[in-house]
Amino acid sequence: MSTCTCKSNSFMKSSLDYNHNSLNLNNQFPLRLHSGGHKSLAYTLLIIYASLALGVSFLCSIMESVLLSISPSHISVLESKNHRSGRIWSDLKKDDAVRPLTAILTLNTIAHTVGALGVGVEVEKLNPGEYGMAIASAILTIFVLLFSEILPKTLGSAFWKELSNSMAFMIHFVTLSLIFIVTPIELFKKLLPGGKQSTVTRDELAVLADIGEEEGEIEEDEEKVIKNLLRLRDINVESIMTPRVVISHVDKNESVSDVMERIPIMTYGRMPLIDTDIDNVIGYVLRSEILRRAAVDEFKIRMSEISRDVHKCKHDDSVDKALDILLDTKEQILIVQDDFGGTVGLVTMEDVIETLLGVEIVDESDEVEDMRELAKKLNSENIED
Fold this sequence. Notes:
Helix content: 55-70%
Largest sheet: 4 strands, mixed
Order of helices and strands: HHHHHHHHHEEHEEHEHEEHH
Structural class: alpha/beta
Strand content: 5-15%
Shape: rod-shaped
Number of helices: 14
Strand order of the largest sheet: 1-7-6-5
Number of domains: 2
Number of strands: 7
């Protein structure tokens, strides 16, 4: 009996030990499965948060770069070709592009903030402690710098023309989506002092001409014309005029025969008409009109009968102003006067064009290329005499 009892007790003890071990295994196995599932989910969320943050930020940086790089001239070209993107860009660039820029920066900030928080939470789940968070922050910072700042902004600034059509619609959509944030900021900006800034200055236009010539977009002579055109308002008429000492003129009382006898070879197409003195210019006559009258034997016709009205300007007026007068009056010649009304010279449309082109225009009938140099030479000869 005792032997049986001992065996029975031993069997029961073995059974209890087996059941206890089985319970331990059953309890541990679900725990391991549960832990592995959490890690997979955490890794998945980590990748999603990081990808969303980098992807959205990448697009925001490209949009910002294209928005700040696109030129008003390119927008005008798009509008002239009736592209819908041209109209969108024109609307987006109003008021210094505050509205779209605010929307882009807002979306970019949201993407960075949410992405960083999400990545931080998942990293803490996977690897609690200081080192895990520090390593994750360093890696995320490098990725943000490379893939959401440097790379997209480089692409945007280099290929803004190619991206301008697609980016117009994307920026427009982002702006409308965040209008509830953009509007208050736009209203706040209007309260700030400060006038509207010029889109481009004269100095910038000159630099653009240099860049265009260096890149082969325009020829060297075209660059020179653009820069000279911008300088017209800074050049005085006195510096390009024909001085009075070399002006070929006629008197109002002279007849056709008198003029042809005094000036057998008339070099200039237009000659000032004076009343006894060069300081009293009352008009001008055309060489062609004098020759026409001579051809029909009207030698007694006086110069005052075939003269035309002449317009005048001040010696310190700009070439730009002289050009405006010539264009408005549809004339080719202006008499230049000093502050006291005396004649100091004359300026023609040819002089203005020479200044614009930066070259001397000389035809087959011109005996002297530079009338100013001739005037200086005559003046020095008179002083020596």
